[in-house]
Specification:
The structure holds 2 protein chains of 2 kinds. Chain A is an alpha/beta fold. In chain A, about 30% of the residues lie in helices and about 20% in strands. Chain A is globular. Chain B is of the alpha+beta class. The chains are: A alpha/beta, B alpha+beta. At the A-B interface, helix 4, helix 6, strand 3, helix 7 and helix 8 of A face helix 3, helix 4, helix 5, strand 6 and helix 6 of B.
């Protein structure tokens, strides 16, 4: 077992922003989630020639608000991150000028945003049609962390986290550690990802996509629905937040990160890596499991993922309410952990978690079930967990702002 | 930031070979591009010199059966990781959770992404390979290192082009300082492919360089390289490490930064003219005798700063350069990564 972690200090969340198929901003997303609205569609933009059509949680082209384009050499993934960051920054009470007075880091998780997977360029290359370098220039300029930093005129530390589907969670955890170690005063952290044919064909090839709206933790679940979007938070040290009298949404008080060391695309069946990540995050938060009021599960609706979480929760969280919100957002990959962090923070504030849409029939393989209706919760702490290809497990623990 | 990291082991695989003996030989005698790859451009066939790395010695550490579906990108990383662990006297596989794995890569598993696209484009969407897709993510190398070496500690994949190495080092320092782990297996890895060479040709034209001259800042002499450079890092626990210490890591804005004048400077200049001109400006006050480069040994790649630090640490251990040096890397966004070693 690893050494004791002795120096994770609380980090304050003072701004949140999100856009995904469930809504163009945080209030809209939460309204739709609490209303049970979900809108998976067969995409017109991302098409393939598989015998079956798989619905996705796609955002309309207009989802990126006007004014966020940097010109033709930009990509949508970074633009979504900018839009979510803009909401979070405004929510935190900053404008561009006031933000520049601080040392601001940018940490963004993504899978598509940093991948050179431009299919039309590669198709031309493969067929000796000698494509021009425009796509490559665009790729060089499309790193989401760089795009966010450029847009807000920030010249501090920035990085893209590429931990696959746990990237958004890890990005928030790492950014909190930057603040704790004094690398920056404030961090814009989160995740952003977009739909594309490479992702679609890849997940279909793995046979883990459902041709129906996804059913997390349901006995009859068949797989995930892909999604796209971005979630961003503004993180600050307690000192900075107090000094500028910032409104605090919640406190990030624990972050765990462990590896399964098991398989490139399947989670460790006994969930030991996830359990270690949970234990570390709880230890940092200085609480026991009983303090967790609810869990926002990874809950992709793939048979393997949900079995790991269901089995582990049965053992270590037998009475803790939990839900998966991927039935509303789809699996937004590198953005998922960040989108779910925003949902968790809002749910903690409201002391209410949304119904785990898509769940109907309990799975006899585990003893716990997600909530089927919007459910009041009582408590000060909540947890969000993410699992990734290759076996990375990441966990965040949030504490509700003390009530006056 | 006074927390310093001790370098307990180094592992390298690059065009010059693999292991620290090969690295030391390259430091003594230099190393040139070791292969030529052909690409088709609009002007006809082009032969491109490259520094190509061979991950075959990985089979000395990991049974071949476990490597069957592991791509070259991951094999390069795993080989360098094994060499670093072996150099530090650690067991392989590790069977532990007190080591973190942090990998920096600019290009990631793009070769595997292109292989995945080959099937889709040439045969159809239904022929997409799940194995290739699973291995096409940036984190494939990190995942495969944790799986092959049985390391269940924290893991992180960082991709920030030329700033990837300094970003990874900053995360490593934090994890060691807060005692999240006892050791960090930190590496940089990048892989050459045909698309990359086509892009070199597209951006830099028909004048193909055959050697990198990093300090001729105004010339475009970049030659693509590939490989992996790993270090096993711990906190400074009082035991003298074989490769010295990383005293300070910092991310600076190019316009606000000056480089130290009292130590050897290792600039990340790698034959790219655009960056070279920035290096020239940055280093104009530095005595040329106090500047040393290594890119001409391993080639040009985004994670090159990890090679600079590893090679310089080996050189310092063997008395070829002073123990005090500062690695400096620039990117196209006006950022500067500084790594101070003693």
């Amino acid at each position: 077992m690893t050494s004791a972690i002795n120096s994770f200090s609380d980090v304050q969340i003072t701004g949140i922003g999100c856009l995904c198929a469930a809504g163009a901003n945080v209030p809209q997303m939460m309204d739709n989630i609490y209303s049970g609205v979900r809108t998976p569609v067969v995409s017109e933009q991302v098409r393939a020639d598989h015998p079956e059509l798989y619905p996705m949680f796609e955002m309309p082209a207009s989802a990126v608000p006007d004014g966020y384009s940097e010109g033709p050499e930009t990509r949508r993934c970074g633009l979504l991150a900018i839009a979510a960051a803009s909401e979070a920054i405004n929510d935190a009470g900053f404008d561009m000028d006031s933000l520049k007075k601080f040392r601001v880091g940018v940490c963004i998780g993504t899978t598509v945003g940093n991948a050179m997977n431009n299919e039309s360029f590669y198709r031309d290359f493969l067929h000796n049609r000698f494509p021009p370098m425009d796509s490559i220039k665009a790729f060089r300029n499309a790193n989401p962390a760089d795009m966010v930093a450029r847009h807000f005129h920030l010249n501090g530390l920035r990085q893209c986290i590429a931990n696959a589907c746990s990237s958004g969670t890890v990005a928030i955890g790492q950014a909190a550690e930057w603040i704790n170690s004094g690398l920056c005063d404030i961090a814009l952290a989160g995740g952003s990802d977009i739909l594309c044919r490479v992702i679609y064909n890849g997940f279909v090839s793995l046979k883990i996509t459902d041709s129906q709206p996804c059913r997390p933790f349901d006995k009859n679940r068949r797989g995930l629905n892909l999604g796209e979007g971005a979630g961003m938070v503004v993180l600050e040290s307690s000192h900075t937040a107090t000094q500028r009298k910032a409104r605090i949404h919640a406190t990030l008080c624990g972050y765990g990160n462990y590896s399964d060391a098991y398989h490139i695309s399947a989670p460790m069946p006994d969930g030991v890596g996830l359990e270690m990540a949970i234990n570390t995050a709880l230890k940092q938060a200085k609480i026991g499991r009983d303090y967790i009021a609810f869990i926002n599960a990874h809950g992709t609706a793939t048979p393997e993922n949900d079995k790991v979480e269901g089995t582990l929760f049965s053992r270590i969280f037998p009475k803790t309410p939990f839900h998966s919100t991927k039935g509303y957002t789809g699996h937004t990959l590198g953005a998922a952990g960040a989108v779910e962090a925003v949902i968790t923070v809002e749910s903690l504030k409201r002391q209410m978690i949304a119904a785990s849409v898509g769940f109907q029939d309990p799975d006899p393989d585990f003893d716990v079930n997600p909530v089927m209706e919007n459910t009041p919760v009582q408590g000060d702490y909540a947890m969000s967990d993410s699992l990734a290809f290759g076996g990375n497990n990441a966990v965040l623990v949030f504490r509700r702002r003390a009530q006056a | 930031m006074t927390f310093r990291m001790a370098i307990r082991g180094i592992g390298l695989v690059a065009g010059f070979g693999c292991g620290n003996e090969a690295a030391l030989n390259a430091l003594h005698n230099g190393a040139a591009p070791n292969d030529v790859l052909s690409i088709q451009a609009s002007t006809g066939g082009i032969n491109y010199p490259v520094y190509q790395a061979d991950p075959a010695p990985l089979k000395d550490f990991v049974p071949s059966g476990q490597l069957r579906r592991v791509n070259k990108y991951s094999r390069l990383a795993a080989l360098a990781a094994c060499l670093a662990l072996q150099d530090a006297g650690r067991n392989i596989p590790c069977q532990c959770s007190d080591i973190a794995v942090i990998i920096a890569s600019g290009y990631g598993a793009s070769s595997t992404t292109f292989a995945f696209l080959d099937d889709v484009i040439l045969q159809g969407d239904s022929f997409a390979s799940p194995t290739l897709f699973s291995n096409s993510v940036h984190s494939a190398a990190t995942s495969n290192v944790t799986i092959l070496l049985q390391i269940s500690g924290p893991s992180l994949t960082v991709t920030q082009f030329e700033m990837s190495a300094v970003a990874a080092l900053l995360n490593a320092r934090i994890w060691l300082e807060e005692k999240r782990v006892d050791s960090v297996l930190l590496g940089g890895v990048d892989q050459i492919n045909q698309v990359l060479l086509y892009c070199y040709h597209g951006f830099f034209g028909d004048r193909i360089p055959h050697e990198i001259t990093p300090l001729r800042y105004d010339l475009q002499t970049a030659v693509p390289g590939e490989g992996a450079a790993f270090m096993l890092l711990t906190a400074d626990d009082g035991r003298i490490p074989p490769y010295g210490y990383i005293d300070m890591v910092s991310w600076e804005a190019f316009n606000n930064c000056t480089v130290p004048e009292d130590v050897l400077i290792i600039p990340g200049a790698d034959g790219h003219r655009t960056c070279g001109l920035h290096y020239r400006k940055l280093l104009k006050a530095v005595d040329p005798a106090n500047i040393k480069t290594f890119s001409q040994i391993y080639g040009c790649m985004p994670s090159g700063q990890m090679f600079d630090i590893a090679l310089a640490s080996i050189a310092a251990k063997n008395g070829l350069i002073p123990a005090s040096f500062c690695s400096v890397k620039l990117d196209a966004n006006g950022n500067l990564g500084l790594v101070h070693h003693s």
